[in-house]
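To illustrate this point, we now present one chain and its tokenised fold:
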Amino acid sequence: MATGSALFNKRVKKELAELQARPPTGVSLKSFNDSLNCIIVRLDCSDDSVYKGESYFLRVSLDSSYPLSSPEVVFIETVPIHPHIYSNGHICLSILYDQWSPALTVGSVCLSILSMLSSCTKKVLRRICPASPLPPAVLDHALQLMVLRLLSASPVAAAVAALAAAAAAAVIAAPNSDRRMLTPKLQERPHDNDIYVATSRKSPKDTSWSFHDDSV
């Protein structure tokens, strides 16, 4: 009878060979270690998604009980901004935890994560310039009204309003070529990102996940 280690090696070698020979669209195998328990995969986002032209890397860690137990999958280097992806690279996706099945593979997991990115519509919530339909003069007038309203509230509110107005005015006054650098992109992380990143353990598999939104 084959040992657990032998079963592990046979299964992982088969998956790696499949990833090299017939990788899913947008998924490519970059590297793996001699022990076969750490695999780096690259995801290339589709042109019809909000991540057009962007690539990301996943680290897939396997223990000796794989495929009976799920892999640990995290984003490394640059982490995409997504409502189900935390800034430390941890991913809230049911098949990585409670809904794992030994029938799944490293390739199918990576494809599911890429699909999750492709279906997202919330990466950029809004951009004021240069896409704003309002001309600079109208925007400038709106800023003046905002400051006047807040001046009557409190000195602190007035100071905050003045700083905000100055920053926005710099965007309005900038040439079109410079506005993209000056205008912040309002993007979306999970609502509990800061608390989770500050308190989570190193492995996302040590987290008790709650899955309630699969719409993105």
Remarks:
- The helical segments are 4-21, 106-118, 136-151, 155-173, 176-182, 193-199.
- The beta strands are 27-32, 38-44, 55-61, 72-76, 124-126, 186-187.
- DSSP finds six helices and six strands in the chain.
